[in-house]
Design goal:
This protein is an alpha+beta fold. The protein is built from 3 helices and 5 strands; from the N terminus they run E-E-E-H-H-E-E-H. Strands 3-5-4 form a 3-stranded antiparallel sheet. Strands 1-2 form a two-stranded antiparallel sheet. 24% of the residues are buried.
């Protein structure tokens, strides 16, 4: 399995077992990267991590995670 890391960030690595078709919550993505949900929200807010909004909620697809980790 490939390793998921946040480019430019000093974080632990985690085995990337995301399904490209699945839609993840901010907390689920934070758990994958072993960071806080605030870190993921900041990445979304800065435009570094592509995402979508459903109402006030942020959702991130497995493909968006994969694309981000391969930057």
């Amino acid at each position: 399995d490939p390793t998921c890391t946040l480019p430019g960030e000093k974080v632990y690595t985690a085995t990337c077992k995301t399904n490209e078709d699945k839609v993840y919550t901010v907390q689920e993505v934070a758990d994958i990267f072993r960071v806080t949900d605030t870190t993921i929200r900041n990445l979304c807010r800065s435009g570094k991590l592509d995402h979508m909004r459903i109402g006030d909620s942020i959702r991130i697809t497995g493909k968006q995670i994969k694309d981000y980790t391969h930057q």
